[in-house]
Amino acid sequence: MLHYETYILNDKAEWIVFVHGAGGSIVTWKYQKEAFRPYFNLLFVDMRDHGNSKNMQPEYSEYNFDIVCDDILEVIDHIGIQRAHFMSLSLGSVVLQKIDEKRPKMIDKMIMAGGVFKADLKIKIFVHSAKFLNYFLPYRVMYNLFSLIVLPKKNHAQSRRIFRMQSRKLAPKEYLKWVALYKEFFKLLKSFFSREMNALSLIVMGEEDHVFYKAAKNFVEHHTKASLVVFEKCGHVVNIEQYEKFNQTVLNFLLPKPATN
Questions:
Q1: Which helix (H) or strand (E) covers residue 219, if one does?
Q2: Residue 4 near residue 43 (C-beta atoms within 8 A)
Q3: Which tens digit of pLDDT belongs to each residue from 177-230?
Q4: How many Cβ atoms sit within 10 Å of the Cβ of residue 253?
Q5: Best CA proximity match to 32, nearest among 253, 255, 251
Q6: What are the CA-CA distances from residue 191 to residues 184, 188, 194, 197, 220 (Å)?
Q7: Within 10 Å of residue 41's Cβ, how many Cβ atoms?
Q8: What pTM does this model have?
Q9: Does residue 83 carry a pLDDT above 90?
Q10: Which CATH number is 4-254's, of 3.90.1150.10, 3.40.50.1820, 2.60.120.620, 1.10.150.80?
Q11: Bridge partners of 255?
Q12: What angle is formed at CA 53 by the lines to CA 47 and CA 59, rounded to 5 degrees?
């Protein structure tokens, strides 16, 4: 089973399940843990090969999104969570929408930070370039290169450093298995863009997220249950770069509104 951590407020509290992106880990959510613990039960998972989720069984020669989602659902079922809010980062938004497709009644509200939504030209170039360069560059060089492409500015430095630090835990063989996700990546994005969403969703993007922001904006324009919040002077990893603003924005979305006289 995946490595996971839980923080229990009480038996009646709602759950939030946190799904990090490719190359990340539970550490991705370092600034969210204390902010959300006073209000919710929390479940953090390290996806297969990431963080402390190593030597997973059964082994696969390559991965697909069903495998990744089923790993997470196994943990959720083990804990006995019937319904929860879900929060994702980056590629985790695709995993989250796949979970919503598999178990729509399980998801209450969704929060997708730095989400990946539509295969526009920039995203296609980004993915196909990564696939091509895998033949020539060691995967750690790849991660450093693409973290610089996605997070190029000085104010993105902390997010870039955390991303690179966590990505070092992936072995080369494990990395290549995750690269195989590209085979269904575009098909899933197209499917999720056109299908009706079941849950109210908050999408939080950085204004400086030059790779993924435009696609997120297009996605929200086509889905009535999705709303978009954009942080100025912020890059891709909004939950780290502007974590206080991010936490308050999400709490406002999740918590009941106070009654007015």
A1: helix 213-221
A2: yes
A3: 887 788 788 889 999 998 888 899 999 999 999 889 999 999 999 999 999 999
A4: 17
A5: 251
A6: 11, 5, 5, 11, 15
A7: 21
A8: 0.90
A9: yes
A10: 3.40.50.1820
A11: none
A12: 90
Environment class of residue 135 by beta-carbon count within 10 Å: exposed (0-12), middle (13-18) or buried (19+)?
exposed
Contact 137, 145 (CB under 8 A): yes
For the chain, give every domain's residue range.
Answer: 4-254
Provide the total of helices (H) and of strands (E) in the chain, helices listed first: 11, 7
Instruction: Check if the beta carbon of residue 28 is closer than 8 Å to that of residue 239.
Output: yes
Find out whether 41 and 6 touch, Cβ atoms under 8 Å: yes
pLDDT 10s digits, 131-165: 666 666 666 666 677 777 777 788 887 877 877 77
Pairing between β-strand 41-45 and β-strand 4-7 as defined by DSSP bridges: antiparallel
Could you tell me the two tokens for 191? 């499917």
2 DSSP 8-state letter: -
Q: 28 with 20: CB under 8 angstroms? A: yes
- The token pair that represents 148 in the structure block: 């610089």
Q: How high is the pLDDT of residue 127?
A: 67
Q: Which stretches of 83-209 are assigned E, i.e. beta strand?
A: 84-89, 107-113, 200-206
Q: 64 near 181, Cβ under 8 Å?
A: yes
Maximum C-alpha span of the chain: 65
